[in-house]
Amino acid sequence: MSRLSFLLGLIIAATTFRVVVNGSESGLEIYELKKGDFSLKVTNFGARIMSVVLPDKNGKPADIVLGYDSVKDYLNDTAYFGAVVGRVANRIGGAQFTLNGVHYKLDANEKQNMLHGGKKGFSQLIWKVEEYVKDDANPFIVFAYYSLDGEEGFPGNLLVRVSYALLEPYKLRVIMEAEALNKATPVNLAQHSYWNLGGHNSGDVLSDEVQIFASHFTPVNNQLIPTGKISPVKGTPYDFLKPHTIGSQINQLPSGFDINYALDGGGDEDNDMKVAVIAHSKKTGIGMKISTSAPGLQFYTANHLKDVTGKSGYVYQAHAAYCFETQGFPDSVNHPNFPSQIVNPGDVYTHYILYEFKTKHE
């Protein structure tokens, strides 16, 4: 397929499937990738991860992401379970920014601010499946979306692709790409899965051990908008340079962790992969290492989950999971000292993530 015909197909898809009305939109699908006893389920609604299953220390299959059994249940989801969020993930203060002398007012969906791309961000759309290869040594799927100029207030047409691939052994690779076609625009895509390495139905994650490879973080105000400072983690509850349990420090914060880290080795134009975080659950013996090309990592301990009925009727509560969202810094469009998220026409934004899982037999 030529790039032009593919682009035209995405334009048709965008105008046909962009809005889901009353949960009745057709075209919702589930796709599965399997590699031995390692499997991934995704949906074209929000290019979301629905499940990640691998054996625990006793050889029993464990599903380690929160979510729902049915795709339709995601239509009313407000937690962004498993979604690709954008055009700009995280928060933009005042839902506005100025670029090349032009002031842009965005769709505010969290008080006066924008969160995860607005009310109808990428997580709320049906994506086009560009490729789906199940019978391969490394099975993969590629989702695509054509974002129109002015969507949620953002400038320019944007061609977006997200691919998921299973690699050996127990590795999940995610590649997110976006090409600005006619105007400069901010782009910051993030994968918003809620991880519980003890199993999605195992309760809270406070006993899980975490190590975050970041010496600095970006402090925020009472609306979780960065102040513009980049501060050392030393002497704060955000210090995970040495591995320790989440529960050992979470009580030092009002409701839990929800903060962006400036990853060590990250930079404005640094596309080299670096280790962002390592986590481990004693419940299952499952460990996870995340490497990324992004400069930042949002660590969020599901502070706002309350009585959410998920898979198999299990009810999720606060701290039932954690999100490790590799990303650009929040509100970077309003902080020149932060790594830039601006993509100029003809340039391609790229964001690589590698999840590596291991089971420790104890």
TrEMBL record:
Organism classification: Eukaryota, Viridiplantae, Streptophyta, Embryophyta, Tracheophyta
InterPro entries to which the protein is assigned, alphabetical: Aldose_1-epimerase (IPR015443), Aldose_1/G6P_1-epimerase (IPR008183), Gal_mutarotase_sf_dom (IPR011013), Galactose_mutarotase-like (IPR047215), GH-type_carb-bd (IPR014718)
Residues the entry annotates as binding beta-D-galactose: 90-91, 192-194, 258
NCBIfam families: PRK11055.1
Keywords: Carbohydrate metabolism, Isomerase, Signal
Superkingdom classification of source: Eukaryota
Active site: 192 (proton donor), 325 (proton acceptor)
Pathways per UniProt: Carbohydrate metabolism; hexose metabolism
Gene Ontology MF terms in the entry: aldose 1-epimerase activity; carbohydrate binding
Classification via Pfam families: Aldose_epim (PF01263)
EC number(s) on file: 5.1.3.3
GO biological process: galactose catabolic process via UDP-galactose, Leloir pathway; glucose metabolic process
Catalytic activity: alpha-D-glucose = beta-D-glucose
Originating species: Coffea canephora (Robusta coffee)
Protein name: Aldose 1-epimerase
Keyword Signal: yes
Signal peptide: 1-16
Family (UniProt): Belongs to the aldose epimerase family.
